[in-house]
Design goal:
It is a single chain. It contains 15 helices and 20 strands. It is an alpha+beta fold. The protein has five domains: 89 residues; 109 residues, Beta-Lactamase (2-Layer Sandwich); 100 residues, PAS domain (Beta-Lactamase), CATH 3.30.450.20; 93 residues, no CATH class; 160 residues, Heat Shock Protein 90 (2-Layer Sandwich), CATH 3.30.565. The strands form four sheets. It has a seven-stranded antiparallel beta sheet. A six-stranded antiparallel beta sheet has the order 9-8-13-12-11-10. Helix 1 packs antiparallel against helix 2, helix 10 runs parallel beside helix 14 and helix 11 packs across helix 13. It starts with 7 loop residues before the first helix and ends with a helix. 15% of the residues are buried.
């Protein structure tokens, strides 16, 4: 297709200029002929007028020459303008021709072929160009709502003469979006063509698609936010609101349409009971965020509380965000109550402190009396130890005889077997218990007099608990006691196996004896600051704190007084304490009357190698 200039106003000016030029030239020639005729003949063409026309003819020629000169300069200026415009047009044509995102499009409606080219071409030359059929072109087109068949029919029927549409088109390299701008024209043969350009607008189309996708995603995110959100434009028209906003204020979605006035929306907020502006640190927040308008706490009719924040942008848009703070409000009320309770407790503690000061003074006075009697108690303890040692020697022989006779009766030597077996079991059990008491008395006496020494070595003690629990298996089953053995210390410890086992056995025996039927015994350990702490805890009868100190003394009655039908000399814990003291350890007791007792054995984690090294250093 050839480019043409089509400027009607310019053409009229040019034609008018040519008419004036030829008219002036005709006048000059005519006046010159008249002057010549008058010069060479005696007769004058205008003599009948009685006027000499020579001056007028000369003046007319001068005027016409001036007109011709002006027209000539005007024509020259016009030609220069035409040349400049043609030069500019050629420059823009070169820019368009070299644009890779541009295709020249020609759809020949008569032969149903489509011509595409990267360069501009003459419509008369399309017969020598490559083409594709209309059907092939449609196979490469997608993503368009334009019906090209209907477009062809409307063009043939002269319903349209221009086309402006977008579609995806598959080239040999890729699939791109194109915008077709074309016009219906005719060639010299009268054939109709849709001629125009296809502009590659893939980037713009992808940007539009991404922008739509982003807008959709943003709307979904805002709709699913756990806070309420509403946005108005600079004319107070509703742009959007989410589900949480409608839920807070019980507004149906049908009335929150885009474009509603902000005042109408506020009239629908019929759930608000109380609205309290938040003044705390609001000036500091506004200083850091100049767009912040207000922050307020709002109580709704359903007793929920929300904190509402309003923001205004620099463009005049306003947004409101609300967060449910009902739990926070409940916590604040609970904190106020706790603060009141704490003040009350502090007052009680202050009263207790004053009472404790009085009791401390009483204890000081009591300690003085205890110190004065300590010497007497030591003398009594020595006398008691001597007495117990003598008694144990005296009782051993008859007790051995009782055990021997009971074994004869147990073997059913006498008549009435059932009675014999019953009596024999009683005698046998009593004899064994007496023998155990006597052995305990002897052990206690020996430990108190420090007349025995024990040999210690590095060894593990975790198996000891299994052996001790197995020894008390029948008693545990009879009393239906549940044992939780959580002892998990598997390293070596410098100790005497027999002494440790005896101490643990005595404590577990007490836990079984002074426990409730169906009670629980828990065994656990802890390593802390170089010490192994073994805790044996029961949920039995327990004792008063004032009697804990006395249980380490032989023949104490601290636990037996409150328990009916409990036998024993109450030497288990004193013996255990002495055995642990030999290991440079100690035993501590915590007990609550009616809830149980916890006995903790503390043994230093010192190996025999470390002891030897210490002796060498000394």
């Amino acid at each position: 297709m050839q480019l043409e200039l089509n400027h009607p106003a310019v053409d009229v000016q040019n034609k008018l200029r040519l008419v004036c030029f030829w008219l002036a030239l005709t006048v000059i020639v005519g006046s010159t002929l008249i002057l010549a005729y008058n010069e060479f003949t005696e007769a004058s063409l205008l003599g009948f007028l009685g006027v000499n026309i020579t001056p007028y003819a000369i003046m007319t020629n001068v005027i016409m020459l001036l007109i011709i000169t002006v027209l000539n300069k005007s024509q020259s200026s016009f030609n220069n303008q035409i040349i400049n415009k043609l030069s500019s047009l050629e420059h823009h044509q070169d820019l368009i021709t070299n644009n890779r995102d541009l295709l020249y499009f020609n759809w020949s409606l008569d032969n149903k072929k489509i011509y595409l080219s990267n360069k501009i071409f003459n419509i008369e030359e399309i017969d020598r160009m490559n083409s594709i059929s209309f059907e092939s072109f449609l196979q490469k087109v997608s993503g368009s709502n334009t019906n090209f068949y209907q477009l062809a029919n409307d063009t043939i029927r002269k319903k349209i003469d221009q086309i402006d549409t977008s579609f995806k088109y598959q080239t040999n390299i890729s699939i791109n979006w194109y915008k077709l701008k074309a016009k219906v024209i005719k060639d010299k043969a009268g054939r109709r063509h849709i001629y125009g350009i296809m502009i590659n607008n893939t980037r713009d189309k992808n940007y539009e698609i991404n922008a739509n996708r982003l807008e959709t995603t943003l709307n979904e995110v805002i709709e699913s936010l756990p806070v309420s959100f509403v946005l108005f434009d600079n004319k107070d028209k509703l742009i959007m609101s989410n589900k949480k906003f409608r839920d807070f204020y019980t507004i149906p979605q049908s009335v929150t349409n885009t474009g509603m006035n902000k005042s109408d929306i506020k009239r629908l907020l019929n759930k608000t009971l109380v609205e309290v502006p938040v003044s705390q640190n609001i000036d500091h927040i506004k200083h850091n965020n100049s767009n912040l308008t207000s922050v307020s706490e709002i109580q709704l009719k359903d007793k929920r509380w929300i904190i509402n924040t309003e923001i205004t942008t620099s463009s005049g848009y306003s947004a409101s965000v609300g967060l449910d703070i009902s739990n926070q409000k409940q916590n604040e009320q609970a904190l106020l109550k706790n603060e009141y309770d704490l003040i009350h407790k502090v007052e009680e503690l202050d009263n207790l402190r004053r009472k404790q000061e009085i009791q401390s003074q009483q204890l000081i006075e009591l300690a003085k009396r205890v110190n004065s009697e300590r010497d007497n108690l030591r003398e009594l303890e020595n006398d008691k130890s001597k007495f117990l040692l003598n008694v144990s020697h005296e009782l051993r022989t008859p007790l051995n005889a009782i055990i021997g006779f009971s074994e004869i009766i147990k073997n059913q030597i006498i008549t009435n077997p059932e009675k014999v077996i019953e009596y024999a079991n009683d005698i046998h059990n009593s004899g064994n218990e007496l023998m155990q008491i006597i052995s305990s008395i002897e052990s206690m006496t020996s430990l108190e007099k420090e007349s025995i020494t024990i040999n210690k070595r590095n060894q593990k003690i975790d198996y000891i608990f299994d052996e001790v629990l197995n020894d008390f298996k029948d008693d545990i089953l009879d009393r239906k006691i549940r044992v939780k053995n959580k002892f998990n210390f598997h390293s070596n410890i410098n100790c005497n196996e027999t002494a440790i086992k005896q101490a643990i056995s005595n404590i577990i025996s007490n836990s079984i004896k002074f426990n409730k039927p169906g009670g629980t015994i828990t065994i656990k350990n802890e390593v802390q600051n170089g010490w192994l702490n073994i805790c044996i805890e029961d949920n039995g009868h327990g004792m008063q704190n004032s009697k804990i100190e006395s249980i380490f003394k032989p023949f104490n009655k601290s636990r037996k007084d409150s328990i009916i039908n409990q036998e024993g000399a109450r030497l288990g814990l004193p013996i255990a304490n002495s055995l642990i003291n030999v290991h440079d350890g100690n035993i501590s007791v915590k007990s609550t009357l009616g809830k149980g007792t916890a006995v903790t054995i503390s043994i230093p984690l010192i190996s025999s190698d470390e002891i030897s090294q210490d002796r060498k250093t000394a």
